[in-house]
Amino acid sequence: MTPPKILLVEDNFITSDEIRDWLMRLGYTEVATAYSGAEAVRLAEEGQPDLILMDIHLGDGIDGIEAAERIQARRRVPVLYLTAYDSDSTLSRAKLTNTSAYLLKPVRERELRIAIELALEKHQAEQALQASEEKFRNIFEMALDMICIADIDTATFLQVNPAFTTILGYQEEELLQRPFLDFIHPDDVGPTIEIIEHDLKHGANVISFTNRYRCKDGTYRWLDWNSHPYPAKGITYAIAHDITERKQAEEVLHATNAAKDKLFSIIGHDLRNPMIGLSSGTEMLREHLQDADAFTRDLCRQMHASIEQVLQLLDDLLAWSRVEQGTFPYAPEPLDLASHVNAVRTFLHEMAAQKQITVTTAIAPGTAVLADPNMLNTILRNLLSNALKFTPQGGTVTINAHKHETMVAISVSDTGVGMSAEKVKRLFNIGEKGISTAGTAGERGTGLGLILCKEFVECHGGQIWAESEKGAGSTFTLTLSEGKNSESVKRT
Question: Which domains, and CATH codes, for the chain?
Answer without folding.
Answer: 6-138 (3.40.50.2300), 143-242 (3.30.450.20), 248-328 (1.10.287), 329-492 (3.30.565.10)
